[in-house]
Amino acid sequence: MSTLAFEVKASYAFIERNFYIVKRYWGWELVWLVYSIVNSLSVSYIGFGMEKLGGQGIDSRFLVIYLAIGTLVWRYLSSVFYWVTDVIGMERWEGTIEYTLMAPIQRITHMLGQTAFAVVYSLVHTAVILGATLLFFDIHLAQANLTGATVMLIAGSLSFIGISIVGAVLPLLFPERGSQMTHVIIALLLLVSGVYYPVNVLPAWLQVASKFSPATYVLDGVRATLLDGAATRSLWPYIWPLLVIGVLTIPAGLRIFRWAEHYAKRTGKLHRNG
Description:
- This protein is mostly helical.
- It has one domain (3-267).
- It has helices at 3-24, 26-44, 46-54, 60-85, 87-94, 97-102, 107-136, 146-167, 169-173, 178-181, 183-192, 204-210, 214-227, 236-267.
- Helix 2 (26-44) runs antiparallel to helix 4 (60-85), helix 3 (46-54) packs antiparallel against helix 4 (60-85) and helix 8 (146-167) runs antiparallel to helix 13 (214-227).
């Protein structure tokens, strides 16, 4: 078997392993899905609440769609983020961290399998939430460019994967609470990316920070396709920053992860979990 074929097979093995983990913990997956649906519905209902609080001059239908898109996109991106950053925590939980990190495969092979599963899982997870949302709200997608929205999500995945690999370093460096420390990354992105409000309501310096968040471009692009029916070919101004962020952060993330892995091996932090 050639080296490339071996690495591809090994990468697929991680995808298959994650599938069986999801299947094993189906109860947790069901609870998390219900929570995600309820959370998305709760945020979307704020649109109708604003009409009640602010009067009839507010377009509640537009607000509901605006918020629903924000929650769905954010659910997708945060799901990709947590599946990738939890790569070490998952190995510790399963008791396989030494076997995985000592296996004769390249680290990029491991990450490729993890990220591929993260994207597929998150797409399915988000599609189910979308289906549930459509049952509660009268949202018409006849004019929406669903293909363009999917392209934006996939492009956003590339940039979020790079950031997630950097975040995956924290559980290596801080075994006791490293997984929880990754929340600060997603919280900062949530603040500046315009998930629930336009970026231009932020202070000027945070608006500058929003330009470095990949979620900003994903949200703007998806909203353009679903609210305005923007053509896929017109999405390049949103896509190219995502590609640049991905090209820069993925190699940097892999390099930082390798350093953190070597450090954890030297200091005996691989297996510690408290």
